[in-house]
Structure formats: structure tokens, C-alpha cells
Write a structure and sequence with these properties.
Bound molecules: ligand EPZ
Helix content: 25-40%
Shape: globular
Largest sheet: 4 strands, mixed
Number of helices: 14
Number of strands: 23
CATH architecture of the largest domain: Alpha-beta prism
Length: about 425
């Protein structure tokens, strides 16, 4: 288990190039299961652990995958299997997304039900209800979900705009002849990106990125080429790191339109944020004003930036509140930030953050991906030495993070064990 050693208290300066979005690349890689023809994906963050795992899932199902830099070529020379292996699904919940494409194509699929994780119980009932609305029957066997019977087009209404369920149902609908409508769909930019890829494969997709997605599917989808959108959560994390260290950073290859909620809140807290075509620049002097946030599905304040936001607000000139409305257990970083001198009180879904003039270095531990990102933001801002344990969580979602931060002036090194 690697750890990061950070000597903090130095402003970040310069330019960081943003990678392709992990959470867009995952479903798009899985959508290649919808065709036997070759697909070429570009701007894929191939160094991420979650992307490597997704490639292993595709290979276990029967695809051949060639990686070259950030390009991924997916093809097949043998029939696909309709089972996803438990040892991979348990390592990455998003593997459950193979259910939609495989069920739609082959009329039968078996996937292990992913367990909960550090941020919540994370059931998949919305996915299952969606498949049932399109005619699937389900059986539970040995902890695996078996879905069978051919899907028919139809109307699906989600009780909550789940990102994963929207992606799973969009992929299924793309391979079912006829028109399927998904109501109360998630509106995240990653959904729009998946919609573009499915359209390039030959499905007719409208409304991806709005709350009603309509898909006219086809039994025979073709291979396609696609370039993945930039990672808005990686961008947001570096924006907050720039502000927390009172530095000045340019994020190259970023998409400001995907980060409106964060940009508005950062400006309210006193950061200077400049938006350009394919770039964002952030600079900050002094401590932020306290600004409260409530997380919500897109276009609300992203739950994935709640933890790094808390790290910045720990340094505010006053008290703010953070309400986590998407996941039920996403405050694990609060206790670790407290070890660095932050004053945070938790009550149910609300964190009250009482700003302090400065944090100080301490040995701390990442409990999940974005909690880990928050600890890095705090560590970069805090004078003294911080050691962050369990870096493998951070490696799931931030490509070459120590190299990118070092190029911006951070003193960070990875200690391998
Ligand atoms: C996606 O997870 C992202 N993961 C998450 O990013 C992100 O935090 C989340 O969307 C919300 O934006 C990927 O894209 C791979 P949901 P997903 O289904 O699809 C409940 C990161 O750090 N729910 O929208 O799992 C669920 O328990 C990760 O990069 C049900 O109740 O999110 C949660 O409370 C973490 N039943 C809420 O909805 C269901 O069937 C949102 O989940 C599905 C979800």
C-alpha cells in the first residue's frame, strides 16, 4: 500500500492538464459490448485503476483491448460471455453496467450484486426496476442477479435520477429495436457523453443530459470512434487545491460549462475564477469567506466535490454548513481533517465547518476516492509534513496526480511499500 508524503503550505502555480473523465470513460468502454465491430476511444484516462479494472471486465467477457497512451481500441474475435466475474465486480461497482448491454443483446445476463462501500449502501433497485419495465424477469441466485427474457422498448420512470441506472438503461435501450423513453433521468455531462457514443454507434438518442432521454434502438449497432470529455471532478479538485493553497492555477483542457455550481460557489467564497474555451484559471489570496453547499444531482453541487470543498471551508473566516443529499455516509474525511486541526461537527447529513486560520500536517488515511482528494487538498495547504495512507483510493480516479501536482510546485512524493 503506497502512501503520499506531502510538505505543504506552498501555493500551487502554473498549468495542469486535465485527463479524460473516469466516470464517462467507464460506461463508454462498457458500451462497446453493444457491437462486435471495433471501437476506438480517445482521451481515456488509462492509467487509472478503475479504467484498468473495466478493461479486465471487458476481457473477461470476451473483448480484446489494446491500450496505447490515452487511446483504447476494443474489438472481438470470439463470442461474448453473458456473465461478469464476482472478483472484478466486487472491486468496482460500475461493473454492474455490463447488465444493460448484455441483457439487451443476448436476452440473458448474470451479474453479482455489488455490495455497499465506504460512502453508502448503494443498492441497484432503480436499475432492476428499469429492466423490469422493459420486460426483463429477475432471479436472485447465490448473490448474483440473473435477468432474462428479451427486452422490449417502453417507458421507464426513475424514482431518483440515478447516474448508473440511466447509463445502464440507455445502453440497453440502444440495442432494442423501437423507442424507449427514460423519465427522471440523470443529467450529468457523463450521460450526455454516453449518448453521443451510442449515437455514433447507430442508435437515435435525444435528450441525453436532460431529465427525459429518448432512444430509438437498433439490433445491429456498429463500431464507432469517440473522444471522452474532460474530467470535471479532477478539474474541480485542482481548482480547490489552487484556492486552498492561495495559489494560481490554469487547468488546460477543462470544460467550464460542466462546473457551473462549483464556479459560482468558489466566486462567492472569494476566489477569482476565469473561464475560457477549454480552460479555467483560478487564483486566490487569503482565507475564503464561509459558503454553505448542499449536494444534489447535476446541475447541483456535485457530491464528488463535497469532500474537497470541506477541506477548503475548514480554512474559512467563519462557519459554513455542508449538506450531503446524495449518499448517506459520505463524511469519513471529516475525522481525518480534524486530525489536521479542522473544526467540524457532524449531525446526520449535515456537517458544520468552523473555519480555522490554518491546518497543520499530520498522518492521515484516505477512506475512499474523493475523501482522499480532500485530504490531499488539506495537506497541500497545511504547513508541515502530512502522510496520506491508502493512496490506492486516490489512484482510482486521479491520473498521475503526484506528477501533475509536482509540476505545479507541490512537494509530494509517493512512498512505495
Ligand atoms: C455515479 O455513481 C458516480 N460513479 C459516482 O462517482 C458519483 O458520486 C455518483 O454517480 C453521483 O454523482 C460513476 O459514474 C462510476 P447514483 P452511481 O446511481 O451511478 C442511490 C466517484 O467518486 N441509488 O446516481 O453509483 C445511491 O445509493 C464516484 O467517482 C439507489 O438508491 O450513483 C445513491 O445514494 C463515487 N438505487 C444515489 O442513489 C439505485 O438503484 C446516487 O447514486 C441506484 C442508486
Amino acid at each position: 500500500m503506497d502512501r503520499f508524503v506531502i510538505d505543504g503550505g506552498r501555493p500551487l502555480r502554473g498549468t495542469i492538464r486535465i485527463s479524460g473523465a473516469k466516470n464517462a470513460a467507464l460506461p463508454i468502454l462498457i458500451a462497446t459490448l453493444l457491437t462486435d465491430e471495433p471501437c476506438l476511444l480517445e482521451n481515456v484516462p488509462t492509467k487509472l485503476r478503475d479504467i484498468r479494472l473495466t478493461i479486465r471486465v471487458l476481457e473477461a467477457i470476451g473483448k480484446c483491448v489494446d491500450v496505447s497512451g490515452s487511446r483504447v481500441f476494443v474489438h472481438a474475435d470470439k463470442p461474448l460471455k453473458t456473465r461478469a466475474p464476482y472478483d472484478l465486480v466486487k472491486q468496482m461497482r460500475a461493473s454492474v453496467l455490463v447488465a444493460g448491454p448484455l441483457l439487451a443483446r443476448f436476452g440473458w445476463v448474470r451479474v453479482p450484486i455489488p455490495g455497499g462501500c465506504a460512502i453508502g449502501v448503494r443498492p441497484i433497485d432503480i436499475h432492476i426496476k428499469g429492466f423490469e419495465d422493459l420486460g426483463a424477469r429477475r432471479v436472485l441466485e447465490q448473490g448474483d442477479l440473473i435477468l432474462d427474457s428479451p427486452l422490449r422498448p417502453g417507458r421507464v420512470r426513475f424514482k431518483f435520477p440515478s447516474v448508473g441506472a440511466t447509463e445502464n438503461l440507455m445502453m440497453a435501450a440502444a440495442a432494442v429495436a423501437g423507442t424507449t423513453v427514460i423519465v427522471n433521468a440523470a443529467r450529468e455531462p457523463e450521460i450526455e457523453d454516453l449518448g453521443s457514443f451510442l449515437a455514433a454507434m447507430g442508435a437515435r438518442v435525444s435528450g441525453a443530459g436532460t431529465s427525459t432521454v429518448t432512444i430509438r434502438g437498433s439490433r445491429t449497432l456498429r463500431g464507432a470512434k469517440h473522444s471522452v470529455i474532460p474530467d470535471r471532478i479532477e478539474t474541480g479538485t485542482y481548482m480547490l487545491a489552487a484556492a486552498a493553497t492561495q495559489g494560481s492555477l490554469r487547468l488546460a483542457g477543462a470544460e467550464p460549462a460542466h462546473l457551473k455550481a462549483l464556479i459560482a460557489k468558489m466566486r462567492a467564497a472569494g476566489a477569482a475564477v476565469r473561464e475560457g474555451r477549454g480552460r479555467i484559471a483560478v487564483s486566490m489570496k487569503g482565507r475564503p469567506r464561509p459558503v454553505s453547499v448542499v449536494t444534489a444531482p447535476h446541475p447541483g453541487f456535485p457530491t464528488d466535490l463535497q469532500a474537497p470543498w470541506m477541506a477548503w471551508m475548514s480554512l474559512a473566516q467563519g462557519s459554513s454548513r455542508i449538506r450531503e443529499e446524495v449518499f448517506e455516509n459520505r463524511f469519513m474525511h471529516a475525522a481525518e481533517l480534524s486530525r489536521m486541526g479542522a473544526r467540524i461537527a457532524l449531525s446526520g447529513e449535515t456537517a458544520s465547518v468552523h473555519g480555522v486560520p490554518g491546518l497543520s500536517g499530520a498522518p492521515i488515511m484516505a477512506s475512499d476516492l474523493r475523501a482522499g482528494a480532500a485530504l490531499l487538498v488539506a495537506a497541500l495547504a497545511a504547513p508541515g509534513r502530512t502522510t496520506v495512507q491508502r493512496v490506492y483510493h486516490i489512484d482510482r480516479g486521479y491520473e498521475r496526480i503526484e506528477a501533475k501536482l509536482r509540476a505545479a510546485g507541490a512537494r509530494i512524493r509517493r512512498v512505495r511499500r
